[in-house]
Design goal:
By secondary structure, the chain is α/β, with parallel strands linked by helices. The protein has five helices and twelve strands. The longest helix is centred in the last third of the chain and has 14 residues.
């Protein structure tokens, strides 16, 4: 069955960090689609319909009348969006699909490992859990190069205050010795991940971001920690 494809107006463009922007795409009148938090949409410009790019939703399924995607300046599509997209422009949008879905059960612990713009879908996870008042624990371990690369920092800190079951941790990999950052430095390793696990049987692992980060996470979770394969969900971004 063909997926629903429509043009949507860009209602708002918001800068997250220097090379990353969030687009709010307004649903056209009469548009209605059933979708889930964690899925992705595929977009193209009306003047180049054959060049398409998939982006995870950074909004959640409780957000109605719009989609949000958070885009890094990367490749033809990402560069055009970040450098040129403005309110009033239009994108062609294929309805959400995908299986990178949060297990929002009361006794579950979602341990989400992200690199760079791979943190995008986890914003949706936390938004839904918080707005529904769920008891699901969500922990994000987020690897960035420097403190200037932290996407959604202000929003995640606000959600931590609102939701006692959510925790947001950042590690920086390319800071100079003179940088005043007092948080964690270096890559995400098995020791750090292990320290976040309280009940192995109730922990579900997610990894999203560049291929090398996701592959390292798979090895860490499956081999170093001995977690069964059915309890890790991954999404690679090139």
């Amino acid at each position: 069955m063909a997926k629903k494809t429509v043009e949507m107006e860009i209602e708002e463009v918001r800068t997250e960090i220097s090379d990353t922007k969030t687009l709010k795409l307004k649903w056209p009148e009469g548009y209605e689609v059933d979708f889930k938090t964690g899925q992705f949409i595929t977009v193209s410009w009306p003047d180049t319909p054959k060049y398409r790019r998939a982006y995870s939703l950074s909004s959640c399924a409780l957000d109605r009348d719009f989609f949000e995607i958070t885009v890094k300046r990367d490749g033809q599509m990402g560069t055009r969006i970040v450098d040129w997209a403005k309110a009033g422009d239009r994108l062609v949008v294929i309805e959400p699909v995908g299986k990178f879905l949060p297990v929002l059960e009361p006794d579950a612990h979602l341990l989400c490992i992200a690199g760079g713009s791979g943190v995008t879908p986890f914003r949706g996870f936390v938004r839904e859990a918080t707005r529904r008042g769920l008891k699901t624990r969500i922990t994000i371990l987020y690897s960035v190069r420097t403190t200037q690369d932290i996407i959604f920092e202000t929003e995640f800190k606000a959600l931590e205050k609102e939701n006692p079951n959510f925790h947001f941790h950042v590690t920086c990999t390319r800071l100079t010795d003179s940088d005043p950052w007092t948080g964690r430095r270096g890559r995400i390793d098995s020791e750090w991940v292990q320290s976040m696990i309280e009940d192995r049987e109730k922990t579900v692992f997610y990894a999203c971001g560049p291929n090398d980060l996701v592959l390292r996470t798979e090895e860490l979770v499956l081999k170093d920690l001995g977690i069964p394969e059915n309890r890790i969900k991954t999404e690679k971004w090139g």
